[in-house]
Amino acid sequence: QQQQQQQQEQRPSELFLIASNTVMFSLYGMWIDCFYQLQAMMFGEGTDLRTVVTKVAVDQLIFTPFLHVPMIQLSLLYIRCSLHCGVFAREIAARRMLSPHGLLADWWFPALLPTWLVWCPTVCVVYSLPPSLQLVIFVIVMVFWAMIQIVVGDSGADDAATAAMAAAAAGAVSEKGAAADKESGNKGAET
């Protein structure tokens, strides 16, 4: 019971978790937008089968295992360590996260499989849409994915933190939609 009390005292506050998760997933959304724009520059904005398959392959075979999964998992751990570098480093060392066993059994591979199950079909749909809708659809799915990540990553996560994260993501959708409406209005005025 004493150990449980110490763990409760070491847990970050609810407000800290709400703010940190909101900032982290908001920054992640901006990173994804940049990634989608980069892929559009590299492979084109087409929605033909070849372009979609190329984008999905780069996304799921390069971006997801080597950037997405490590960034999300390590960011959530860093937040649970109250953004304290020393605690974060000790947690990584204690869990042997960078060892082959840690990577394959503890955090990287176990996080990669469900990520592929959700995001492979999602990005197939996303890349089949016009570029102005891609981030919007991504964010809608990301709201649910983020809630799963937060709850699974920290079984003691508060409902308020999850709700705040979902609200932040929903705000990003409405901002992106307003920007897309403005852009399509400008294109309509030009023609």
Helix content: over 70%
Order of helices and strands: HHHHHHHH
Proportion of strand residues: under 5%
Mean pLDDT: 80
Q: Tell me about the biggest sheet?
A: none
Report how far apart the termini are: 70 Å
Shape: globular
Helix count, DSSP H or I runs of 4 or more residues: 8
Low-pLDDT segments:
155-169, 187-191
Using DSSP, what is the number of strands? 0
SS class? mainly alpha
The protein's oligomeric status is: single chain
Radius of gyration: 19 Å
Model description:
The chain has 191 residues and is mainly alpha-helical. The protein is 85% helix and 0% strand. The protein contains eight helices and no strands. Helix 7 (131-153) runs antiparallel to helix 8. The chain is globular, with a radius of gyration of 19 Å. The model is unreliable at 155-169 and 187-191 (pLDDT under 50).
